[in-house]
Amino acid sequence: MAYQAEYIWIDGTEPTPMLRSKTKILADDVSTPPIWGFDGSSTNQATGDKSDCVLRPVFTCSDPLRGGPNILVMCEVLVASNMRPHPTNTRAACAKVEKKYADAEMLFGLEQEYTMMRIDGTPLGFPEGGGMPAPQGPYYCGVGAGRIAGRDIVEEHTQACIDAGLSISGTNAEVMPGQWEFQIGPLGPTAVGDQLNVARWLLQRIAEDYNVVISFDAKPMKGDWNGAGCHTNFSSVAMRDSYKAIISACDAIGKNYMELVQNYGVGIEDRLTGQHETAPWNKFSYGVSDRGASIRIPWQVEKDGKGYAEDRRPNANCDPYTVSRMITDIVCGAATKGKKS
User: Fold this and answer.
1) Which domain holds residue 190?
2) How far is CA 150 from the centre of its chain?
3) 201 falls in which pLDDT band (50, 70, 90)?
4) Any idea what DSSP says for residue 42?
5) Beta carbons of 308 and 235 less than 8 angstroms apart
6) Do 43 and 156 share a domain, yes or no?
7) Could you say which of 54, 89, 124 is where a domain stops?
8) How many domains in the chain?
9) How far apart are CA 263 and CA 90, in angstroms?
10) 26-45: per-residue pLDDT in tens?
11) 305 pLDDT above the threshold of 90
């Protein structure tokens, strides 16, 4: 019996990489799909004279669209000549940092916002043919015609993630019409990137059937509209046991805030304006229950004296491997240095 394995990878498109995929037919066991290859000259990852790149499977799950024993295969890209991580492979660096700080048991929960767009580039839920809808207010977690658009895609995507066995933990309509969010996690630094990318692929593949484009742009509509982020909830085992460790983590991030912002996705200045529930991109702050801060500490966390914090700055188009790697490196590195001093 033949099975289908959909190999998914991240390409080399700049400034924001895209997901690519192709199907391999497997004649036998699908639990350990083999390495495969692709034409890197067509994905901005190689030149025509040395076009072969390698796909190495790193995460597999059931294919909820095809059903049966068919699978989805998240891959990392390797250089064919030496089987080392390709320059576009940010997962390899993330895995290295995760291994280095394994004792910290870092966990991440990613809140992926996105905007559904018509083929003509206007958001779903905006008047067809031009014009603007009513101002922000009734759309966030809203219900009803005239407020909500695209729920059929959301429902199908949510069930697909569940059927695939992904750690999806919630969905909701966002502040701008046509804007939605789903959450993945809690998972480790590398696993959360693997599953978010598979969930992103599923979302775009399902929307394709509705002739809808999924945009991860940080500011898809200029003006008085919220941008789209990927709020990143994070905690170490120490933070899950101590409020002091949470404050120390926030302080450590504050000392490196600009380096992080520069790696949190394209269009960060357009989104982090200091308005629309964001802190300014060039300033750092943290506070309890403050959605206008760079990092929000939930009120329940302060009350419990332990838990997690939420970095509100990563864009919807961020690379989850880079975000989790940098936060892990900074938070755990500072904690390790503190123990030695």
Assistant:
1) 97-340
2) 20
3) very high
4) G
5) yes
6) no
7) 89
8) 2
9) 12
10) 987 777 899 999 999 999 99
11) yes
Q: Contacts from 241-244 at CB under 8 Å and sequence distance 24+?
A: 241/306, 242/305, 242/306, 243/301, 243/302, 243/305, 243/306
Q: How far apart are CA 260 and CA 279, in angstroms?
A: 14
Which of 62, 89, 116 terminates a domain? The answer is 89
Kindly indicate the confidence band of residue 4, based on its pLDDT and cuts at 50, 70 and 90.
very high
Let me know whether 295 and 185 are in one domain: yes
User: pLDDT per residue over 271-285, tens digit each?
Assistant: 999 887 788 999 999
pLDDT computed for residue 341 by the predictor:
57
Query: Does one domain contain both 215 and 70?
Result: no
Residues 7 and 151 in one domain: no
Q: Same domain, yes or no, for 39 and 179? A: no
Helices of type H across 148-307: 151-164, 189-208, 243-254, 257-261, 268-271, 299-304
- Could you tell me what percent of the chain has a pLDDT over 90? 91
User: The pTM is what?
Assistant: 0.96
Do 105 and 253 lie in one domain? The reply is: yes
C-alpha span between 265 and 160 (Å, rounded): 27
Q: Are residues 47 and 142 in the same domain?
A: no
Contact 307, 298 (CB under 8 A): yes
pLDDT one-digit tens code per residue, 108-118: 999 999 999 99
Question: Hey, what amino acid is at 321?
Answer: Y
Question: Closest Cα partner for 331 from 308, 312, 297?
Answer: 308
pLDDT at 41: 97
- Say if residues 318 and 264 touch (Cβ distance below 8 Å): yes
